[in-house]
Task: structure prediction
Amino acid sequence: MTRPLKLAYVGPAASVTFRRWVEWFAARKHEVTVLTVEPAPAPMCRQIDLRESRGPRRLGRVMSAWRLGKELNRLRPDLVHVHYVRGLAWGALRQVRCPLVATPWGSDVLEEQGAFKEWYSRPLIRGVLNRADLVTVHSAYMEERVRPLIESGRRVARIGWGVDLTKFREGVGVGALRRQWELRGDQPVLFSPRLGRRLYRHERIIQAMPAILKKVPHAALAVAEQFPDDSYLGELRTLVRDLKLGPHVRFIGSVPYEQMPAWFNLADAVVMMPESDGMPNSLLEAMACGSVPVLAPLPQYREVVEHGVNGFLVEPIPSAISHDVIRALSEPVLRREMAGRNRKFVEMFADQDKEMARMEGWYRRLAGRERESAEPCAA
Result:
């Protein structure tokens, strides 16, 4: 019988994305420990909180990273997996002798999102990536951006976050959401699900609404507000007021992960117009639920959406957005065809169970656990 692995994860436990990954392996009976400076309010497994409150914030970060190396050496896991290669992850550069997997997320390696804003960030990020026995990326675009940061010959594997297909599917009830947000049963809904920050350009979608309403008069737009920039959201509310869109726009706050399948079922179209991105799992989750994606023409989006076939890729200007949103809302046959193609795509290429099983295979190879006699690596 194959023995469970002793796995140490480093990352933001408060992130649903990170928790889903960790919980999958905990459910498989591996011995899982999470080391974090962003603990989950409801622990999914053993957590070690490395936050330091003493001294200036930057000094606290240094102390947390130093403690990480110390704790990893004490734990002596079979393998360490670092999610997000800035900040706390830098502590993995200490003499931790276990196999290391590193998974960049996007803003930790994308310069346009501030990855290298401090003079010391680039060498430390490169250090973590080149210390890793395996780097995993969730899209071809991310691999293209990560490759210049790592030495030639380093192993890179394409492994996505994956979608829980039992939760993200068509047929999830939406009646409660329609009542809560005062949406009629036949009212078309657009959903802008990304973080409430300038990078995601929700204003472009709001600016497209007057033209959309000329063709689809009862359409409504729901704007999520996760991790909000209050100043930016204030500007969005002012824009809605100035355009007299109040009856048609709902600011829905921070949406719990458990509600996302219902929102994606409610939405006829999901609209994303960010300046930069990795490969958002919310896009794949929306596709699994049958919502039509209307996206900025970023190269990473082109990996999963072909314009006019299973979604729309449009320039992030109001006239272009409105044109294809109107198509998504007005052509039910096309919408159904796209939904069917997208579900098949996610089942084939983004099934969480399949992606995590591939990751588990890598863990076992790296930890040498094919041999039952393998010993935990020494500190």
